[in-house]
Amino acid sequence: MSIFKRTKKINKSEENKVIKTQKDESEESFILNKKNRNVATHRLIVKPILTEKASSMETQSKYTFMVENKANKVEIKKAIESLYGVHPIKINIINVSGKKVRSAKGYGVTKNWRKTVVTLKSGEKIEYARAKI
Question: What is the distance between the alpha carbons of residues 42 and 26, in angstroms, rounded to a whole number?
Fold first, then answer.
């Protein structure tokens, strides 16, 4: 019965070498976070939110974006820096819950989504048409 209990032992140093080579080979268009999952920067930020309230906040150097649901503040900051070439000072994240809707087939709920408010330095601006996507 010893045949079934055999396992291949891997040294810790070999695992670390594999992880280090993966980090060295990663491109600038990807962000490697704590959980070792690659997130494309152009996929992290879904779209800018262009509403009346959001446009009034642009005078205070605050810009709003719709982002992926699993994105955190560090990933969003790196994505904004790479896409728009600006340096955010502060990032606020708001979880927006889905709305109840009704159709002929019955009731349902729209998707939950995540909104972020990015505060920039006083002299910087974001021009949405110049994103590096």
Answer: 15
Residue range 89-94: mean pLDDT, rounded: 97
Which pLDDT score is estimated for 13? 57
Query: What's 45-130's CATH class?
Result: alpha beta
pLDDT tens-digit series, residues 114-130: 999 999 998 899 987 66
Of the candidates 61, 65, 68, the residue with the CA atom closest to the CA atom of residue 48: 65
Query: To the nearest 10°, the Cα dihedral for 27, 28, 30, 33?
Result: 100
d(CA 100, CA 51): 22
Q: In whole angstroms, give the CA distance from residue 93 to residue 115.
A: 6
Tens-digit pLDDT profile for residues 4-32? 665 555 565 555 554 444 444 444 455 55
Q: Considering all CA atoms of the chain, what is the largest pairwise distance in Å, rounded to the nearest integer? A: 74
Q: Does residue 38 contact residue 68 with C-beta atoms inside 8 Å? A: no
